[in-house]
Amino acid sequence: PRSPEMKSRAMGVPLLLLVVLGSAESAFRAHRRYTPDWPSVDSRPLPDWFDKAKFGVFVHWGVFSVPAWGSEWFWWHWKGQGSPDYMRFMSDNYPPGFSYADFGPQFTAHFFDPENWADLFQASGAKYVVLTAKHHEGFTNWPSPVSWNWNSKDVGPHRDLVGELGTAIRKRNIRYGLYHSLFEWFHPLYLLDKKNGFKTQHFVAAKTMPELYDLVNRYKPDLIWSDGDWESPDTYWNSTDFLSWLYNDSPVKDEVVVNDRWGVNCSCQHGGYYNCEDRFQPSRLPDHKWEMCTTVDRQSWGYRRNMMMADVADEAEIIAELVQTVSLGGNYLLNIGPTKDGLIAPIFQERLLAVGKWLNISGEAVYASKPWRVQSEKNASVWYTSKGSVVYAIFLHWPENGVLNLQSPKTTSSAQITMLGIQKDLKWSTNPQEGLLIYLPPSPPSALPVEFAWTIKMTGVE
């Protein structure tokens, strides 16, 4: 017969095993392995920094910034489509026989100061920045080992633009993302795969995947903004193989965020968060995290010398889009295009600083907010966000009588209502019909801390 001490130890073995097994199960859940298929990859939780960030700046910069005419699709419109307008532009401004590759040395980035860019992005209130590492033209803004003589180290700036901006951005605790196009318009290996009905993968093996792995290992981006996905399936790109590695074994496996452009039919279906399409703007609250990407110059993502003032979104329009996007649970990614010299046009600086000025007052209702039970009033001039028990109502039009009528909130006896940027409480009363009436400050809107999109903060409402 066992002694009491032995019996006690024996009885403790199953308990110890349960503790060990329980710890192992928790560890397994924390370090789960993702298999290279969409059900597994799509099950990976989105790192929460992205939802909290809400606002980012997109930067389209490359050799297309040299002709700086029409759009960043200049090469395709000129040589791919043979557009008469683009052909005429070239014959009027460049000598016969001038090729797109001849633009490369003129992409000098001579005045590019990453610290100044980072200061501007910080002042804009952006919590993440996404730079074009490579657009569809194939020119890489870093010394890609598989883009010989068509990258920013060998040609033009002779600098690592991706690395320099990343260092400056991260000094300011801003997340750094990289845009990367899967395909290239005129790369011979891609055209060969396309001719073969994408049954071969010469381009994927020699170019796309080496670039993606290099970008991740070298720069450790917080976000990968994939594009160029619309001609071929995700199986051609080996997208799930790359994403499973990214989530399992890469140096950014715990923090990295990706979008949904990984092959035909992936948009709004697969990936991390959804872009769906450029300037995507849902009419109701989506059930998946999403992002609206749009651009200050409505006609182009890259810089254009022929940009007109009428093409530029105004401050109120930009902030209204930001408000609507955040109210519907999205992030707002606002694009600007620098010049070939590395300068950001004053009109783009002005727009970014206007967003920053607004966020400096109203950011409490934006950063880390959640959609409320109602996203907007029926007339779409009032949009709601929330944080815990606090509800924010952002109204886009100042009522003529100075009384804001909100139909959705239900007040309680402990309700307290203020306006962000103004210290004192606002007077309010219940509306005999529905909701509440808020008596706004008697000052004209021009005298308030923000000039448009004013924010009401409400506690004690249901």
From TrEMBL:
The gene is FUCA1. It holds the Pfam family Fucosidase_C. It comes from the Eukaryota. It is found in: Lysosome. This is Alpha-L-fucosidase. One of its GO terms (biological process) is glycoside catabolic process. One of its GO terms (molecular function) is alpha-L-fucosidase activity. Keywords: Glycoprotein, Glycosidase, Hydrolase, Lipid metabolism, Lysosome, Signal. The record marks 293 as: May be important for catalysis. One of its GO terms (cellular component) is lysosome. Alpha-L-fucosidase is responsible for hydrolyzing the alpha-1,6-linked fucose joined to the reducing-end N-acetylglucosamine of the carbohydrate moieties of glycoproteins. It is an enzyme of class 3 (hydrolase). The keyword Hydrolase applies. It catalyses: a neolactoside IV(2)-alpha-Fuc-nLc4Cer(d18:0) + H2O = a neolactoside nLc4Cer(d18:0) + L-fucose; an alpha-L-fucoside + H2O = L-fucose + an alcohol; a neolactoside IV(2)-alpha-Fuc-nLc4Cer(d18:1(4E)) + H2O = a neolactoside nLc4Cer(d18:1(4E)) + L-fucose.
